[in-house]
Amino acid sequence: MTLRTGIFGGSFNPLHSGHIAIGEYFHQSGLLDEVWFVVSPQNPLKTSEVSLNAEERLDACRQALKAYPYLKVSDIEFSLPRPSYMAQTLKTLQELYPRRTFSLIIGGDNLEHFDKWKDYDYLLEHYDILVYPRPGSVNRVPPEWKRVKLFEDATMMDISSTEIRARMDKEQKTRNKTI
Fold this sequence. Notes:
The chain has six helices and six strands. The protein is of the alpha/beta class and 179 residues long. A six-stranded parallel sheet has the order 3-2-1-4-5-6, sandwiched between helices. It is globular and about 40 Å long.
């Protein structure tokens, strides 16, 4: 039996309810048997992002996903050269797990600049790409990208790690002023 495995990569800085809802959506839809959250120690498109260190983010993801047996955390990119590139990650996973069929999960915001990803043409050729729509994003798939599917019926999540970090930073600054 071939397990259908979704790869959901990111910094997960922090992992939030929107990320979990996306993983659940693809699992509960029957499209995927499991969703692996691949924590990136160094995302090449987020070089200036202030973050928890990679090990802390990995541990936080493991703790948050304990209650979801079909949502797993992968540290595969911790053993790959940095920065991490999804094409290499998927090639490595396919070699390690030849009996799995991998699909890539991305948000509509990533779809807008997907053609800037390293070896994006390889990804388009070898993997199904499942796109979760994002508010404020174009959420449109170029017609020549045959293996890319936008799930327009999915509920849009109006939450982002960037907003959460900004809110936490603001709260910290407010606390420091009152001390």
